[in-house]
Amino acid sequence: MSLPIRAYSFLVITTLLWGGNTIAGKLALGHVSPMVLSFGRWALATLVIASIAIPQIRKDWEVLKANWKLLIFYGAVGYAAFNGFLYTALKYTSAVNGAIEQGAIPVLIFVINFLLFRIAVSAVQILGFMISFIGAAVTASHGDLQTLLTLTLNYGDLLMLFAGIAYAIYTVSLRWKPPVHWKSLMAVPALAAAITCLPLLWWEAGRGELILPDTRGWLIILYAGLFPSLISQILYIKGVEGIGANRAGLFINLVPVFGTLLSVTILGEKLEVFHVVALVLVLGGIAIAEWGKPAPDKAPR
């Protein structure tokens, strides 16, 4: 059986764009507040997808209407809740903690799939996951794993746990995605995400922390709305469809690696040996997990 290269490509591009979102988040500090950025990116994504999806939505309307609760769930939990928890968490916890805790999302997907559907995970897959996770930890600790022993947990880390649970649940729930065109599948959850962000925006304003975007802020919203929000979510759905939630989720460990490599390229940070080591570990772990899969995952219904 030939390798599902197309799904791999979709997932690598997805994590590259998510890594770029990390850089955008760094560049956004002082130029646009987290909830304004979250609402702006999903509002923009909704406008873009709606501008090209209206005819397709009309064709898919009966199926969309029958599955409207699930589609709203995708937008509220997978898009709005995840980003809301993530952006808020990074105000309280370190970037190292945040990167490592995002690496827990694949194992959360494994656990949920096993508890709900008894989807098997082989010993070789677990080994591959651990190697991939170590690669993410090497990235987050800048090659000094001893620093991980000094990390402390706080309120932000609890929020990161909630963020990981939200995205893991979203990933697993893609097995029930309705049989509609990708344009329709993206449009309704994007709108739901934008609407869900409104109370978060109100909460941020009530705390006096709202920062309206300046020129750089608008550019960051433009990037986040088109790439991490729209294109990457479409590719992620296709990737999960191609190889299953367990195997697709493992690619999330590439996010901190791509984030640091993009920091070198865009922010001018120095390329270190640990960057290369981390990339080899993450990709090697994914390859081992793919080789050791007990059986092909069923494509989501």
Automatic annotation (TrEMBL):
Q: Which residues form the EamA domain?
A: 7-139, 155-288
Q: Which InterPro entries match?
A: AA-Vitamin_Transporters, EamA_dom, EmrE-like
**Subcellular location, in the record's words?**
Membrane
Key word Transmembrane helix present? yes
Which residue windows are transmembrane per the record? 7-29, 35-54, 66-87, 99-117, 124-143, 155-173, 185-205, 217-236, 248-267, 273-292
| Alphabetically ordered keywords of this record | Membrane, Transmembrane, Transmembrane helix
| Keyword Transmembrane attributed | yes
**Superkingdom of the organism of origin:** Bacteria
Please give, as recorded in its UniProt entry, the membrane topology of this protein: Multi-pass membrane protein
Q: What are the GO cellular component annotations? A: membrane
Q: Which family does it belong to?
A: Belongs to the EamA transporter family.
Q: What is this protein called?
A: EamA domain-containing protein
Q: What is the protein's species of origin? A: Agrobacterium albertimagni AOL15
